[in-house]
Amino acid sequence: MSTNRRLRVAIYGCGNFAKRTRVPNLLQTDAVDIVAVCDSSLQAAEEIAGEFDVPSVYHSGNGGAYKMLDAEAIDVLYSIVPAYVRTDVEVTAVEKGIHLFSEKPQAITMRVARGIDDAVQEAGVISTVGFRERYRPLFQEARRFLADKNVVHIRFQSFGGLPHSTDGGPKTWWAEMDKSGGRALDWGVHATDYSRFMTGLNVARAQAFYCERGDYATALSSSFNYCFDNGATMTLSFVSAGPSPKNEPWFTVFYEGGCLEIYRYDRIEVNGDVLYEADEFDPWLEQDKTFIRAVQTGDASLLRSDYHDGLFSLAPVLAGWESARRNGECIDVASFMDDV
């Protein structure tokens, strides 16, 4: 494919993230024309179309996403809708030979995610998932350092304020646990993916417990236990209870002989000494530029993950969510992925 040909991009999902991040990033590449937008809110779609001079607007509430795929000449679909919305729009797109960018999480069931993945594999299109931090030099440096280390345990922790109250009902889909999965799904797929990226390991078994109380729409805390395919372990804690502890690392990777700590997007410490200090970097833009370049050139090897690889970061979190429903049952991730 010629690297000079401009790509025709359609945007499925016109929320703030699309408006403030993805669409401006794509236009910065100077390699695409955004030909159509579609959203369940016609107003949101029209606002993006007006601001960025997009010629075609569709309303997904009346089957507009399928109409858009039928009516428009599209090279790339950016699926930026919430995970619970995804059914088979992406399947329809890739069956038409349209390349796919899927925001994370890819779905809230493995059945839907596997259906999309099967279609991607069959069509042979280029695909990726919005795991932007794989493109950040900080995580790449951690990956380089850990390449020859025998990982023993990873600890991840994320803190936040109290969840939405149930008084008056949920105000957004994010405040509906069955749609959003809470912070454990949103941040959990990130934490799982970046742990996989840094170590080269996959999760073999998953278990989780959730603290849910009637006054709050989503979980106050979620505690996950993983066992990796090399026998190493991982704990992930998502706590929504109030002010966050200060100066705590997000990731601590224990390996035979030492430990590596990642403090937000700022620095890496190894055994208490600073290994790497980060400069300003925009991983969202870098990922978008790389994906567009991969599609233009037909070279998927430019990407740091594809849709299929993303399943190995999604499945452990969904398996943990299911484990919590089963009172902490330990779930084999491979079997969970296949049981669709």
Summarize this entry quickly.
With 340 residues, the chain is α/β, with parallel strands linked by helices. 37% of the residues lie in helices and 25% in strands. The mean pLDDT is 95.
Task: Please characterize this protein's 3D structure.
The chain has helices spanning 16-28, 42-52, 64-71, 89-95, 110-123, 137-146, 177-180, 182-199, 283-297, 307-325, 333-338; strands spanning 7-12, 32-39, 56-59, 76-79, 99-102, 127-129, 151-160, 203-211, 221-228, 233-240, 251-255, 258-263, 267-270, 273-277, 331-332. The strands form two sheets. It has a nine-stranded mixed β-sheet with strand order 14-13-12-11-7-10-9-8-15. It has a six-stranded parallel β-sheet with strand order 3-2-1-4-5-6, sandwiched between helices. It is globular. Helix 1 (16-28) crosses helix 9, helix 5 (110-123) packs antiparallel against helix 10 (307-325) and helix 8 packs across helix 10 (307-325). By secondary structure, it is of the alpha/beta class. The model has no long low-confidence stretch (mean pLDDT 95). The protein is built from eleven helices and 15 strands.
Main attributes of the structure:
340 residues, alpha/beta, nine-stranded mixed sheet, six-stranded parallel sheet, 11 helices, 25% strand
Mean pLDDT: 95
The secondary-structure class comes to alpha/beta
Enumerate the spans where pLDDT stays under 50 for 5 or more consecutive residues. Answer: none
Report the count of strand segments. 15
Strand order of the largest sheet: 14-13-12-11-7-10-9-8-15
Q: Please compute the radius of gyration using only Cα atoms.
A: 20 Å
What is the strand content? 25-35%
Described by strand count, sense and barrel closure, the largest sheet is: 9 strands, mixed
Helical run tally: 11
Form type:
globular
Order of helices and strands: EHEHEHEHEHEHEHHEEEEEEEHHEH
How far from one another are the termini? 36 Å
Q: What is the helix fraction of residues, given as a range?
A: 25-40%
